[in-house]
Automatic annotation (TrEMBL):
Family of the protein in this entry: Belongs to the class-V pyridoxal-phosphate-dependent aminotransferase family. Csd subfamily.
Cofactor: pyridoxal 5'-phosphate
Organism of origin: Salsuginibacillus halophilus
Leading EC class: transferase
Gene3D superfamilies xref list: Aspartate Aminotransferase, domain 1 (3.90.1150.10), Type I PLP-dependent aspartate aminotransferase-like (Major domain) (3.40.640.10)
Protein name: cysteine desulfurase
Keywords assigned by UniProt, alphabetized: Pyridoxal phosphate
Catalysed reactions, as listed in the record: (sulfur carrier)-H + L-cysteine = (sulfur carrier)-SH + L-alanine
Molecular-function GO terms, alphabetical: cysteine desulfurase activity
Length: 383
């Protein structure tokens, strides 16, 4: 199969990732930090090794500020819940946000009474400082921004947000699910309060892995409470990190695989990954933008962008096209709203959404050319 749904999860995984998961499962998948016996120590060492690699990779000053989660959604929930916002507090986000952000904010609006404002960046990712200033209130406490859109491939320009958040001493959460492992993300350098990302997308790790990366000054309250192995005598979660934010048994095989994924990205080089994926996206755009009846959304072929391209075939149902590509061409793409309804409202493509193709580092020009030919044939056959 030609797999072109890397914005959802990367596949196939590199062999070292598979080997690391298998080794953990067969050799030391005991409970880390829950005993002094050898297998528990080995599991703990594997977790610590990944924590240190992630800290170096993302510019986190102290490894203990790398917090493991099951996915980016859990990391985002933990980060925002940890703020302990009150009724009347205000949060600003963008219309490019995934439901992992939007639904959390909307639930907090309903249950806590916070207020939420959404601003719309340009298709190329620019916002102005004045856009952020215009919606700020006396009760604004936090800003949440995705780094890259999972619908359009837009890379958000973080500089105005960085200036705005720093000037007003706001908590700033970045959702780097689409950019981690593709673009540099430096927590300390950006001055972000926290960065959440998936481990199973650009970082090439297994599903069931996610990261919350904390700035040295960020001290969120625990979102999930429970066993931590140490400090069991206290009724409250311990003060020390990472234990304070990591209740329950960690996914040792997944974390071992994530460490191997980070090693692979370091071996390839972030610049190589980004240039490869951007070139493939540009190839798709250039070939399809001149096909009458096919509309391509997002930054142009010559603009900086992620390897995510969404399109609409006039007169063709996107879900039907997805099914035909799967069943007759053995090509995996995704149709619909992509868990980002605000982005589609901004594009004018709600409620039906778009057909999305997203490439990865192992996608080839031949894969992309096969998709281009197939989608043209599907359009001509169904329109």
């Amino acid at each position: 199969m030609i797999y072109l749904d890397h914005a959802a999860t990367s596949f196939p995984k590199p062999q070292p990732v598979i080997d690391a998961v298998q080794q953990a499962l067969t050799s030391f998948a005991a409970n880390p930090g829950r005993g002094s016996y050898r297998l528990s120590r080995e599991a703990h060492a594997a977790v610590d090794a990944c924590r240190e690699k992630a800290a170096a990779f993302f510019g986190v000053k102290f490894p203990e500020r790398v917090i493991f989660h099951a996915n980016a959604t859990a990391a985002i929930n933990a980060s925002l819940a940890g703020l302990q916002l009150e009724a009347g507090d205000h949060v600003i986000a963008t219309t490019f946000e995934h439901n992992a952000v939007r639904r959390v904010l909307e639930r907090m609006k309903k249950e806590v009474g916070i207020k939420v404002s959404y601003i719309s960046p340009e298709m190329t990712g620019e916002t102005t400082l004045s856009q952020w200033e215009e919606v700020k209130t006396e009760r604004t406490k936090a800003v949440v921004t995705c780094h890259g859109s999972n619908v359009t491939g837009t890379i958000l320009d973080l500089e105005p947000v960085q200036v705005f958040a720093a000037e007003h001493n706001l908590f700033w959460l970045i959702d780097a699910s689409q950019t981690a492992g593709v673009l540099p993300v430096d927590v300390q350098g950006l001055g972000a309060s926290a960065v959440a990302c998936a481990g199973h997308k650009g970082l090439l790790g297994p599903q069931g892995t996610g990261l919350l990366l904390l700035h040295e000054t960020t001290e969120p309250a625990p979102w999930l409470v429970g066993g931590t192995g140490a400090h069991s005598h206290t009724a409250e979660m311990p003060d020390a990190l990472p234990e304070r934010l990591e209740a329950g048994t960690l996914n040792v095989p997944g974390i071992a695989g994530l460490a191997a994924g980070i090693d692979e990205i370091n071996r390839y080089g972030l610049n190589e990954v980004f240039e490869h994926e951007q070139a493939l996206a540009a190839r798709i755009i250039r070939r399809l933008q001149d096909v009458e009846g096919i509309d391509v959304y997002g930054p142009g072929a010559d603009q900086s962008r992620l390897g995510v391209v969404s399109l609409h075939m006039q007169g063709v149902d996107g879900h039907e096209a997805e099914s035909v590509l799967d069943q007759h061409y053995n090509i995996a793409v995704r149709a619909g709203l992509h868990c980002a309804p605000l982005a589609h409202e901004f594009l004018g493509t709600a409620p039906d959404g778009l057909l999305r193709v997203s490439v990865g580092f192992f996608t080839t020009e031949e894969d992309v050319d096969a998709f281009i030919q197939a989608v043209i044939e599907v359009y001509e056959g169904l329109a």
